[in-house]
């Protein structure tokens, strides 16, 4: 029966069976079936809808308990969380910050807005995130340690201050190896964990292994606050300071207005935090449903020439976005065309950062694995279903 249907038609049918609908199927949409309305209504009735309120504190405490980070600082979005983390890490204008070319642009925008310059390192075939071997190779060739212990580019002028690995689609980066390279080269680690809430590296929550992490609660992420993010800080005191700079950095006083440093005013409104708190309660169920969905896709693609992207053996992925590797670029293009024309949304991976106008002059390595993913990868509908 299936013999006169194309592989793409079979995939469309399979996805429609999973979501039990003939309507358009998006890549990812939020699910609200718990206390969302109740908590959001509560903020309106209390008038505490803005940047002060009990849900902001509650949301931060919930994320701290869930991830095990020292201090979580709520922000307006994940991009802002990254910006604050880079600021707190001491990144300065003119510094180099290593990151991956295969990422969402927000990772690099944060580096750009520090006045720093990204260096694009290849990703690992295993994790789809920053490759520690590629990073070490680039440093061995291009960096040296000054007498004061700081890492510099070979020109002796540009400091290499930090690295931002990103846990792509929720799959954890090889953190032990990465941290070892960073220790050797005195480089601060800021994990972009925007896609990986609920993902573990060897039992530890992603975003808590480096000095800082950043999570996002944008509408398409595993849980949403409408918009929002948090900077995860390993050190509690640094976290308190980070909280201070996300406000207007006003010195505590009942009525005097005195600000002791430049603040970002990146605070998350209580209205959004209320939604986030309710979503935190649903997170364990979402994770289970996403794992189930990934299992179904894996089975569907087994024995075909399309390879389902599974979590690395050392980690536990949240399977935020399911992905497959197509046999070649033509197969990828055909599958994208067919599924999207039939109302099942699929998407290629982001264009490599080196192709974007603002980063076209940035340094990079060969990026051979990144290019492979760019040419072959497709993301599949990943909204949790029960
Ligand atoms: C979503 C995302 C962010 C930040 O997202 P916001 O939309 O600013 O909350 C940062 N990095 C990556 C990799 C992301 O996917």
TrEMBL record:
One of its GO terms (molecular function) is transaminase activity. It holds the Pfam family DegT_DnrJ_EryC1. PANTHER family: BLR5990 PROTEIN (PTHR30244:SF30), TRANSAMINASE (PTHR30244). This is LegC family aminotransferase. CDD domains: AHBA_syn. Belongs to the DegT/DnrJ/EryC1 family. NCBIfam families: NHT_00031. The keyword Transferase applies. It comes from Neptuniibacter pectenicola. InterPro entries: DegT/StrS_aminotransferase, LegC-like, PyrdxlP-dep_Trfase, PyrdxlP-dep_Trfase_major, PyrdxlP-dep_Trfase_small. Keywords: Aminotransferase, Pyridoxal phosphate, Transferase. The keyword Plastid does not apply.
